[in-house]
Design a protein that fits this description.
The longest helix has 20 residues, at 14-33. The two termini are 51 Å apart. This protein has helices spanning 14-33, 49-52, 56-59, 80-89, 133-149, 164-173, 181-188, 196-206, 210-219, 225-231, 236-254, 300-303, 318-327, 353-366, 379-388, 421-429, and strands spanning 37-38, 44-46, 64-66, 72-75, 98-102, 105-107, 119-128, 157-163, 261-263, 277-283, 292-296, 311-317, 343-347, 370-372, 393-397, 405-410, 416-420. It folds into two domains: 14-334, BirA Bifunctional Protein, domain 2 (2-Layer Sandwich); 343-429, Rossmann fold, CATH 3.40.50.800. The strands form three sheets. Strands 1, 5, 6, 7, 8, 9, 10, 11 and 12 form a nine-stranded mixed β-sheet that branches. It is of the alpha+beta class and 430 residues long. Bound molecules: histidyl-adenosine monophosphate. The site of histidyl-adenosine monophosphate has 23 residues, from strand 7, strand 11, strand 12 and helix 13.
Length: 430
């Protein structure tokens, strides 16, 4: 009986694993150079963790199960609730502010499509206990810092920024009640992802009053921050939120990434816990889904039973990122190696086999990577094998080995040199 792979999951054969490692290594390097420390949590949590404050969408996409003690569990669809739980648990012991990163494997029961899978990896960057919008700027910088390191430029991608705090003030002025806000956010987040009619139907379901609905549509059409300042009735809270957004754009310019940043009132985010600045990174052509999304969530730790401690961060998935990098020619399988062979040990005749085995394992004991042929083969065939393995050198064991010497062939230049065994090992380690 043949059992197929599960829909929406991926098998990582060595070439795919090389891509995954390339992405994850880049994420980790950029996290560290921006001052973030790595953490991780369990792959499953109590189901209610994702029902408290993540919102309807994620709650409907959970892979959940009942354990043998009858407890309801879910595989993590995101790591932010785990982060909130972990920080709350040690809130008095942890030095603050907290700057942490993680690369969790996540599962969401989504309909698999381009860039959307049922299992994926997501880079997370979060800063906890910095109320200043400077922290929002720093997490956005970190996302762009990574994306730039892959070769992407401001011509390829943009970070679209808005503010839930501003939007809440605007929606209230349009006649939306406080307790309607979460439901309205969830629909507005869908605007770009749904056909107009479907969107209208959803909005009508949430906002029965036609006048209110028209006002909401008008304010969502604002293209610039100035347009919001000029036309809408901003209360003090709304004006403060706009001031904060302006400061954010100034900070991004100061940080040298101003050209990546655009205001977009349509960025609302699907998760329910965001309270302030929200952002998503898209390809400029906007043909793909968001590469990355995040924002400020100042109430999540409190909602999880902890003190009122502020937080901001983002998640970047590997799936859309890989598609984007391939489309831009910044990722090709041939640029990534699945192994790193320093030297291939070849023999001129079968009588040298034991000498070769001795040498291979001596090189490995010394800390370099050596390979050899399991089967007897001619020198030409062995050199081909070395080439296929992308070995830096081929070391040829022949008659000179009795005088402690070897022929070393540089596979890139084709140059050959006779060397003492010790000298050969030393240069391999260099
Ligand atoms: P999210 O918008 O749900 O946010 O996901 C962030 C990113 O994860 C998306 O932009 C996308 O790249 C990737 N992603 C999400 N779902 C899938 C999927 N089914 N398949 C492939 N990639 C996917 C969050 O998860 C927040 N917890 C992020 C955050 C951290 N906010 C603050 N801190």
């Amino acid at each position: 009986m043949k059992i197929p792979a599960v829909k929406g999951t991926r098998d990582f054969y060595p070439p795919q694993m090389a891509v995954r490692n390339y992405l994850v290594d880049g994420w980790k390097a950029v996290s560290l150079r921006n001052g973030f420390e790595e953490y991780d949590g369990p792959i499953f949590e109590h189901l209610k963790m994702y029902q408290i404050k993540s919102g309807e969408e994620i709650a409907s996409q959970l892979f959940s199960f009942t354990d043998r003690g009858g407890r309801d569990m879910a595989i993590r669809p995101e790591i932010t609730p785990t982060l909130a739980r972990m920080v709350n648990q040690q809130i008095n012991a942890l030095p603050r502010p907290i700057k942490w990163f993680s690369v969790p494997r996540l599962c969401r029961a989504e309909r698999p499509q381009k860039g959307r899978l049922r299992e994926f990896f997501q880079w997370n960057i979060d800063i906890i206990d910095v109320e200043d919008v400077l922290a929002d700027a720093e997490v956005i910088f970190t996302a762009i810092d990574y994306l730039r390191s892959t070769g992407l430029t401001a011509a390829d991608i943009a970070v679209r920024i808005s503010s839930r705090r501003m939007l809440a003030a605007l929606l209230r002025s349009a006649g939306i009640e406080q307790d309607q806000l979460d439901g309205v956010y969830a629909v507005l987040d869908k605007k770009a992802k749904l056909p107009d009619e479907a969107f209208e139907a959803m909005l009508t379901e949430r906002i029965g009053d036609e006048t209110v609905r028209r006002r909401v549509a008008e304010l969502m059409a604002a293209e610039t921050i100035e347009a919001i300042e000029n036309t809408a009735h901003l209360d003090a809270e709304g004006a403060a939120a706009v001031g904060e957004l302006r400061r954010l754009f100034d900070l991004l310019s100061l940080m040298g990434i101003g050209e990546f940043a655009v205001f977009d009132i349509g960025v609302v985010r699907g998760l329910a816990y965001y309270t302030g600045v929200v952002f998503e990174v898209y390809d400029r052509a906007a043909t793909l889904r968001a590469v990355c999304g995040g924002g400020r969530y100042d109430n999540l730790l409190r909602d999880f039973g902890g003190p009122a401690v502020t937080a901001t961060g983002f998640g970047m998935g590997d799936a859309v990122l890989e598609i984007l990098l391939r489309e831009k020619g910044l990722l090709t399988d041939s640029t990534l190696s699945t192994r790193n062979v320093d030297c291939f040990v070849a023999i001129v005749a079968d009588e040298f086999r034991d000498r070769a085995i001795e040498l291979v394992f001596r090189v490995r004991r010394a800390g370099a990577c050596a390979e050899f042929s399991y089967k007897a083969a001619g020198l030409k065939k062995q050199l081909k094998q070395a080439q296929a393995l992308n070995a830096r050198y081929t070391v040829i064991v022949g008659e000179e080995f009795s005088e402690n010497r070897l022929t070393v062939k540089n596979m890139a230049t084709g140059e050959q040199e006779l060397m003492a065994v010790e000298q050969c090992i030393e240069s391999l380690l260099a």
